[in-house]
Specification:
Layout (H helix, E strand, L loop, with lengths): L1 H29 L5 E3 L4 E3 L2 H25 L3 H19 L7 H21 L11
Antiparallel strand pairs: 1-2
Helix pairs in contact: 1-2, 1-4, 2-3, 2-4, 3-4
Length: about 130
């Protein structure tokens, strides 16, 4: 069962990364959105490589936290979901507003949301029937 669960979670992590990559390709290449983020000092272009790395790091961090919580508590799913939603909300407050222009801000928000939703819905293992954890 552990191997099946690990394979399932690896597929979810890969899926989140693929979703972000596809969104980037569609919105940047096909729709022509110039994806750039700025700070007070500089503006940098967001590349497909940056999107892939960010999604993969988020997926691995989420997976690692879930695995650790599962070893520590019977309420891992509830704790992990609460933390994951809080991190997603925080990422939406910090990441997308740094976009340069409305298209970039909207695209960054969609990327954050899609990766977050895929991970939040896909990573926790389903509860066995009759077991309330």
């Amino acid at each position: 069962m552990t191997n099946n669960l690990s394979l399932r979670r690896a597929a979810v992590a890969a899926g989140a990364t693929l979703v972000a990559t596809a969104e980037f390709a569609i919105l940047h290449s096909a729709a022509g959105v110039d994806l750039a983020a700025g700070t007070a000092n500089a503006t940098r272009q967001i590349t497909v490589a940056a999107v892939v790395v960010a999604a993969a790091v988020a997926a691995l961090a989420a997976w690692t936290l879930l695995a650790m919580l599962e070893r520590l508590t019977n309420r891992a799913r509830a704790w992990w979901t609460s933390i994951a939603v809080a991190v997603l909300l925080l990422s939406l407050l910090v990441g997308p507003p740094s976009g340069v222009g409305g298209g970039a801000k909207t695209t960054l928000a969609l990327l954050h949301l899609s990766v977050g939703v895929v991970l939040i819905l896909g990573l926790p293992r389903p509860r066995p029937e009759g077991l309330n954890r």
